[in-house]
Amino acid sequence: MNVVPRITVVGSINMDLVVQCQRIPQAGETILARSASEICGGKGANQAVAAALAGASVSLVGRVGRDAFRDRLLNNLRVQNVDITHVRTDDHVSSGLAVISVEESGQNAITVVPGANGRVTASDVRDAESVIRSSDLLMLQLEIPIDAVMEAIRIARQCGVRVMLDPAPAPNRNSRKSSIADQSSNPEKRTDFWDDDLLTVDFLCPNESEAADLVGHGVDDLVQAEAAARTLHARGAANVAITMGDRGVMVFSEGRATMIPAFQVSAVDTTAAGDAFAGAFAVAWAEAGCQTANIVDAVQFASAAGALAACTHGAQPSMATRDRIEELWRTR
């Protein structure tokens, strides 16, 4: 690699309260957990850290609250070599918080309190326009208000920067609203997420649940996954990758569907596997000049990163270095 790719992430920054339990409780049920810990997270921050560890120069745009978590969140990003010049401190709300229940199988259930993430604005994004314009790739998710996401897409399109969207967390299928931050913090500004203008990105990477919400039908097997990927492409996404856990990744690119098998590992916590996948993919694709012909190779690399993340507890602590990703990647 001769040139370090430049990646900008516009997204959330959370403190994760991770609860280890034998199984995730059902509605109305109380169970005893084995342990609890506070770990730096948030999809935007997770993906920024994953991309930095995989070899990119990364800038993050977002907000934290002026609270007890602020310094820990920002210092952690600095240590991981993520530029936080455009992370603002909001005096009026707390930092974002995610409560994550992880069962013995490694599966999880997550509840997010957006906090400062719900106050990221289009103005915040415009203030970071020079950073976006100088990037090779822009990474987005949906834990911040939709206005900020759309402004980032607008700027990137205007200057020819490739855009990658992880449509997570998916809006409730019944409410059909925009981002989780819009649903909880800005009810008067709710926007229909299914506006296809938002899906008109260079790379869309939902998991199977999010893909099902987007297309309105189940994504329970490879046939349904391919159909969903083709639908999302028809609605505007140039390239689509649907992550399907230990079954692998369904990729639709250049008119062809390709199933990439997963790396076989012993998963203990899948919380940030998708974010690890996204960050590593962004680096591999940017290094290849964001050429469509290199999508499958980049997904292979990203799959190794996602598999490694599932082998370690916590979000950002589970992100693998480039050397570790390449070591697993080369086994295929």
TrEMBL record:
Domain of life: Bacteria
Annotated substrate binding sites: N14, M15, D16, G42, K43, G44, A45, N46, E143, D275
Residue numbers annotated as active site: D275 (proton acceptor)
Subcellular location per the Swiss-Prot or TrEMBL entry: Cytoplasm
Catalytic activity: D-ribose + ATP = D-ribose 5-phosphate + ADP + H(+)
Free-text activity regulation comment from the record: Activated by a monovalent cation that binds near, but not in, the active site. The most likely occupant of the site in vivo is potassium. Ion binding induces a conformational change that may alter substrate affinity.
Pathway assignment: Carbohydrate metabolism; D-ribose degradation; D-ribose 5-phosphate from beta-D-ribopyranose: step 2/2
Chain intervals with Polar residues compositional bias: 177-186
Carbohydrate kinase PfkB domain segment(s): 6-321
Chain segments carrying region Disordered: 166-191
Binding residues for K(+): D269, T271, A309, T312, G314, S318
Subunit structure: Homodimer.
HAMAP family per UniProt: Ribokinase
Protein name as catalogued: Ribokinase
Organism placement in taxonomy: Bacteria, Pseudomonadati, Planctomycetota, Planctomycetia, Pirellulales
